């Protein structure tokens, strides 16, 4: 027995199990703690105190654990309908906000440009504009300062929406890379977008100008009254030549002279019956004026924005953004500017564009109110320019330019500022 003990101690035979009584049921003890399979690690569970995570924590809701593909961060293609709707709505809101800011000055400027007899004495000085505003307020109260503003908003929302939408689309088609971002392409994109907006909204502009031109305080003039008046205005048509006069002047045979005279009479009747053409008075100078105005406006705004975003100024001019906000920016879109920097770029754009296009704007206003000034004869651009030159000289083409600056500069600043902020909000 003494020899068997050392042999058992040094052997590799496992120890014998303890005997189990037949009457005792077999037990299944729980596995040791170290044998329990490890559970997946969850940081959010630890941050919640090892409690089951019912909803993400505040930190997880602000900074996701991994980049989600949610609507908040998805990129909207510029050629999609969603982008078109968002940019159009943003442009319309920006235009309405800008026009509301300067509505009283806009009415005074129209009265000066259209040579309203009652307000001729106020033209030519800064104090005259203030006196004109005071006169309008004394006669018609605040409503007089905003006369025609309802038609303005009705026109300016689609006008601004189409203008900014067209600019985004035309610019994207003409400028596909950094090497194509030239001043000429930027100018052309702005000019074409302005022309597109004018084509769609010009009749509303004529109604707005006529509402603003009216100064009679005895009866309230509605949009319907103005539309009826414009439609029924007809210029004095020349008398068609008779068959006898044609035959003597051209030596035509009598049947041919009678046919020509009948055609002239029929054409004269058709012209007198087309009142819709009255809503497009001054359309040609409007297009000519829109080319430099919209082109220089967008070009100046883009160039001034590029200057503000230079590295040496970026820390002062660029709006700080979080990482998530930067992910929401459209591809290749420059970061937004601070409020003061964006307002300065918009104001500079308004100043340059107004100076470049103002003479054509004066001609356009004269043509738009042609039905209520003089005998209602429709004058061409050249005839209106000659009349202005004969009445006031070259200064007549810039009458009201001072108040034009006071109106256009804050209007352009507000328009570009609101549009850029709406683009960030709409993630376009």
From TrEMBL:
Q: How does it sit in the membrane?
A: Multi-pass membrane protein
Q: Where is the composition biased (Pro residues)?
A: 23-39
| SUPFAM superfamilies to which the protein is assigned, alphabetical | Mitochondrial carrier (SSF103506)
Stretches for region Disordered = 1-77
Q: Does the entry feature the keyword Transcription regulation, yes or no?
A: no
Which keywords annotate this record?
Membrane, Mitochondrion, Mitochondrion inner membrane, Repeat, Transmembrane, Transmembrane helix, Transport
* Keyword Transport in annotation: yes
The GO annotation for biological process reads: transmembrane transport
Q: Which residues cross the membrane?
A: 397-419
Q: Return the Solcar repeat spans.
A: 82-173, 181-307, 337-425
* InterPro entries linked to this entry: MCP, MCP_dom_sf, MCP_transmembrane
Q: Where is this chain's protein located in or outside the cell? A: Mitochondrion inner membrane
Chain's role = Mitochondrial transporter that mediates uptake of thiamine pyrophosphate (ThPP) into mitochondria.
Q: Which family does it belong to?
A: Belongs to the mitochondrial carrier (TC 2.A.29) family.
For this entry, the protein name equals Mitochondrial thiamine pyrophosphate carrier 1
């Amino acid at each position: 027995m003494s020899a068997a003990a050392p042999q058992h101690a040094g052997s590799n035979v496992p120890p014998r199990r303890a005997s189990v009584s037949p009457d005792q049921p077999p037990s299944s003890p729980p596995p040791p703690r170290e044998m329990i399979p490890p559970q997946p690690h969850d940081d959010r569970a630890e941050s919640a105190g090892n409690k089951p995570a019912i909803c993400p924590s505040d930190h997880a809701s602000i900074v996701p654990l991994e980049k989600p593909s949610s609507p908040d961060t998805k990129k909207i293609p510029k050629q999609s309908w969603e982008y078109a709707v968002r940019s159009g709505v943003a442009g319309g809101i920006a235009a309405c906000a800008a026009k509301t800011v300067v509505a009283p000055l806009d009415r005074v400027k129209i009265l000066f440009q259209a040579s309203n007899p009652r307000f001729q004495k106020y033209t030519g000085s800064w104090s005259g504009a203030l006196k004109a505003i005071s006169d309008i307020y004394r006669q018609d109260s605040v409503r007089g300062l905003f006369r025609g503003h309802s038609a303005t908003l009705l026109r300016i929302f689609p006008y601004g929406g189409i203008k900014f939408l067209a600019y985004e689309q035309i610019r994207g088609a003409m400028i596909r890379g950094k090497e194509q971002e030239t001043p000429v392409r930027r100018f052309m994109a702005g000019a074409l977008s302005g022309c597109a907006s004018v084509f769609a909204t010009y009749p509303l502009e004529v109604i707005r100008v006529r509402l603003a031109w009216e100064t009679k305080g005895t009866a309230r003039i509605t949009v319907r009254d103005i539309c009826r008046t414009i439609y029924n205005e007809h210029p004095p048509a020349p008398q068609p030549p008779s068959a006898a006069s044609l035959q003597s002047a051209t030596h035509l045979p009598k049947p041919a002279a009678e046919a020509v005279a009948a055609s002239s009479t029929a054409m004269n009747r058709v012209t007198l019956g087309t009142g819709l053409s009255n809503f497009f008075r001054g359309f040609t100078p409007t297009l000519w004026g829109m080319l430099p105005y919209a082109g220089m406006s967008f070009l100046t705004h883009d160039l001034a924005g590029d200057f503000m975003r230079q590295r040496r100024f970026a820390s002062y001019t660029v709006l700080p953004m979080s990482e998530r906000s930067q992910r929401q920016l459209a591809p290749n879109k420059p970061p937004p500017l601070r409020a003061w920097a964006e307002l300065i770029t918009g104001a500079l754009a308004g100043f340059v564009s107004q100076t470049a296009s103002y003479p054509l704007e004066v001609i356009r206003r004269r043509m738009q109110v042609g039905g209520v000034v003089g005998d209602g004869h429709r004058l061409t651009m050249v005839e209106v320019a000659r009349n202005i030159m004969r009445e006031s000289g070259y200064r007549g083409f810039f009458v009201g330019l001072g108040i034009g600056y006071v109106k256009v500069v804050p209007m352009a600043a507000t328009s570009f500022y609101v549009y850029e902020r709406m683009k960030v909000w709409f993630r376009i």
